[in-house]
Amino acid sequence: MFPIGFNPTLEIRREQVFFIRIFRGTLISTFTWFAAFYYRLLLMLQQSKLENEYLKQKNLQAQLSSLRQQISPHFLFNSLNTLSTLSHEEPVKEYILKMSEVYRYVLHYQEQTEVQVQEELNFIHSYIYILESRFEEGLKINIRINPDHLNRKILPFALQLLIENAIKHNSMSYRTPLTIDIYDLNGKMVVENDVRPRTTMDRPSGTGLHNLSQRYQLAAGKDILITRDALKFKVEIPFLL
Description:
It is a single chain. The protein is about 60% helix and about 15% strand. By secondary structure, it is an alpha+beta fold. Strands 2-4-5-7-6 form a five-stranded mixed β-sheet, with helices on one face. A two-stranded antiparallel ribbon has the order 1-3. It starts with 7 loop residues before the first helix and ends with a strand.
């Protein structure tokens, strides 16, 4: 016999609601715990990546410091100037002068993160003089830059690296000179060269272009654009400002 007023069906429903609430609370607690655990794991992984990147940068800085200590840059620069005064041949004096200008730029901008296009081009003209003294008629470099963009900024040595890359991977001769064009287009600097792969050379590693891309990612959150077809190889680098 059930007590007067006792409703078995209602009591069963109450127990069902009670157990449902317990199950729901347990499920929510478990989900919350797993979400917190997963979030904490992500933070730990991110922290580990940052620490590894920090160690890599410190190791790279140590290596660069060691290389710089092997020879005094200012000693070499002053030696070039002295050598220029000792020479009496104008072509030799001019060559040494351009070498000094290149080295002065390296000393000034080796730790900088940006440079005006005009400054980079001044350096490039001296660098081109040295290259043309070496390759003579086998190399043709044309520069066409809108004067309005000369005060814009790019990464130091970006143009030099791209010129060097073109020379490294392509053949040239007096009859078929390698042509490199440097110009600005749609808010970017462009370095474009003929595709004329060397017949005897190691497989390209792409390290130089990869490093340039990483430098742009770190400095401005931007990337370079590389395009190639059977005739032309082109690299576009964005202006920083």
